[in-house]
Specification:
By secondary structure, this protein is an all-alpha fold. It has helices spanning about 10-35, 40-70, 75-100, 105-115, 115-135. The longest helix is centred in the middle third of the chain and has 29 residues, at about 40-70.
């Protein structure tokens, strides 16, 4: 019996798409709020941090999805970890130079970088509330 290759056309893919859109909404809200509440340089720092966070999230999602689809063998975990650490190192270097050169302010950058964390926390709390309501 031939096995059908694993694809990301599953309920999990809907979750990933939903989280991606939620990340974009969080990014838009934080960016708009920054431009309304703080100076231009700080707001730009939020946007840059958010863009870096979204890019990292997207690349991590692609790496993990590729790892879940069977290929011609090889060490999947090793490849995922190597890509993760390379992306981590590249991000660290980029952040270092952005802050060192004064392109961004550290606090605004940190707020922007928290886009994915905020989205996942809000999603987690909403799921916990939903489960609690279902349990009653």
């Amino acid at each position: 019996m031939a096995h059908k290759p694993l694809t990301m056309e599953t309920p999990e893919s809907a979750l990933l798409k939903g989280l991606w859109w939620a990340n974009l909404v969080t990014f838009a809200v934080l960016s708009a709020g920054a431009f309304l509440l703080v100076n231009w340089h700080s707001a730009l720092s939020v946007v840059v941090g958010g863009a870096i966070a979204l890019a990292n999230y997207g690349l991590l999602e692609k790496t993990i999805c590729r790892a879940l689809v069977p290929t011609s063998g090889g060490k999947v975990v090793g490849r995922v970890l190597i890509r993760y650490y390379l992306r981590f190192a590249a991000t660290a270097v980029i952040l270092f130079f952005l802050v060192r050169q004064g392109v961004v302010e550290p606090l605004g950058l940190l707020v922007g970088l928290s886009v994915v964390v905020v989205t996942i926390m809000v999603w987690g709390v909403s799921q916990a509330i939903k489960l609690r309501k279902e349990a009653r």
